[in-house]
Design brief:
- The structure is a single chain.
- 50% of the residues lie in helices and 4% in strands.
- The protein is mainly α.
- The protein has one domain.
- It has a two-stranded antiparallel sheet with strand order 1-2.
- A hairpin with a 5-residue loop joins strand 1 (99-101) and strand 2 (107-109).
- Helix 2 packs across helix 3.
- The longest helix is centred in the middle third of the chain and has 24 residues, at 70-93.
């Protein structure tokens, strides 16, 4: 996601602390970290709720998830859940059935493939906000050692 002022988006203060680059003289306002885990919004899919319950406490413990982040994290969880569900469906179909042929003889992708790819784009954009991709986690030796591969936790569980 782009920064409305241009340039790189700001790093969360908690991420700076974990990387050892936080400086009190550059901090703006008060810390946004809440004492308790944010309340999960209603309306998430079953898979998204599982992701929230598994990943949310880990991020909150690291100071990367506060009450104000709940809606953005809910979008991340829903996109992750949708991506997982569609990926499983497409894997059952097999790659040869990901395309259909129109009446004019043109090949086109099935809608499920396009929806899965859009969910992945949302995941990719939001993952940096919570330190969930390798580049935003670079320099977080503590996080990299303590946290498992979050994707594997869900990829190999049946629906």
């Amino acid at each position: 996601m782009s920064n409305p002022r241009g340039g790189r988006p700001r790093k969360p203060e908690a991420l700076k602390k974990l990387q050892g680059t936080a400086r009190p003289d550059r901090r703006r306002g008060k810390s946004m970290n809440a004492k308790r885990m944010p309340k999960r919004p209603t309306g998430l899919s079953e898979q998204a709720v599982r992701i929230w319950k598994s990943l949310g406490p880990k991020l909150h413990e690291l100071g990367l998830l506060a009450e104000i982040d709940a809606s953005t994290f809910a979008i991340y969880c829903q996109a992750f859940g949708d991506w997982l569900q569609l990926t499983r469906y497409l894997n059952r179909l097999g790659p040869l059935k990901w395309y259909s042929t129109t009446e004019n003889g043109y090949r086109q992708t099935i809608p499920e493939l396009q929806v899965r790819d859009r969910a992945f784009q949302v995941l990719h954009k939001l993952s940096t906000r919570f330190g969930l991709d390798p580049s935003s986690r670079a320099g977080l030796g503590v996080v990299a050692e303590r946290s498992p591969d979050f994707a594997e936790e869900f990829l190999f569980k049946p629906l």
